[in-house]
Amino acid sequence: MVKYGLDYTRCRWILPLLLGIGVIFGIIALAGRGWLESQTLPYVHQASLWESCTRPGQGGTWTCESLMGYAWGRAAAATYLVGFLLLVICFALAIIAFAIDTLRFNFIRGIGGLLFVAAVFSIMGLVIYPVKFSSEIDMTGINMFSWAYGFGWTTAIMEICLGFFFCCLPNYEDQILGNVKPTYFYSSP
User: Fold this and answer.
1) In b/e form, how buried is each residue of 95-106, taking b as 16+ CB within 10 angstroms?
2) What is the maximal distance between C-alpha atoms in the chain?
3) pLDDT at position 99, please?
């Protein structure tokens, strides 16, 4: 963005846009029923962050059990939800920060720090869930942690990467605002 002469006014919305994509991925992870699924036929197990559903055979009806009855289920949901709420707050703050004509670079660095805190909470929830789920819930057949769980990890990785970008952006304040004179490389004959 800085080195190759891209105009700041055209590129200023890239980071808030990426945060918005992270929020969408977080919503998919929170609402998705694919945290854990049966890998092979018959598909007899499916779980989300909130409940675990099983059925006796291919044609049977699903019976669901809430994971909020377990302390680890509440802990996993709470920590992931706190990380998601911090991500939403960072998204709102980034829109405010980049909408102002003059950027407050310390404010942007604070958003980066808050993104790291959000990543810590998200990763705690993403680690608690599979460890305790596989040890305390009876699973039949071959199961895999599936697409919604992957969206949760994608959200956590985006929080870490965007945290670095938001923290490092103030180091290039002069280049972004155009306060540095261009250097021309010219050699005389």
Assistant:
1) eebbeeeebebe
2) 85
3) 79
The per-residue pLDDT for range 136-153, each reduced to its tens digit, is 887 777 888 889 999 999
Q: How many CB atoms lie within 10 A of CB 51?
A: 16
Task: Please count the CA atoms within 13 angstroms of the CA of 74 that sit on its side-chain side.
Answer: 4
Nearest to 122 by CA among 150, 91, 82, 151: 82
Domain spans in the chain, listed from the N-terminal domain onward: 9-35+71-167
Helix (H) or strand (E) holding 53: strand 51-54
> Phi first, then psi: what are they for 178, rounded to 5°?
80, 25
Rounded to two decimals, the pTM is 0.83
Structure tokens at 84: 């998601």
The model's pLDDT over 115-142, given as tens digits with 9 standing for 90+, comes to 999 999 999 999 999 999 888 887 777 8
DSSP states along 10-25 = HHTTHHHHHHHHHHHH
69 closest CA partner among 52, 44, 47: 52
CA 40 to CA 140: how far, in whole Å? Answer: 11
Arithmetic mean of pLDDT over the chain: 84
- Identity of residue 11: C
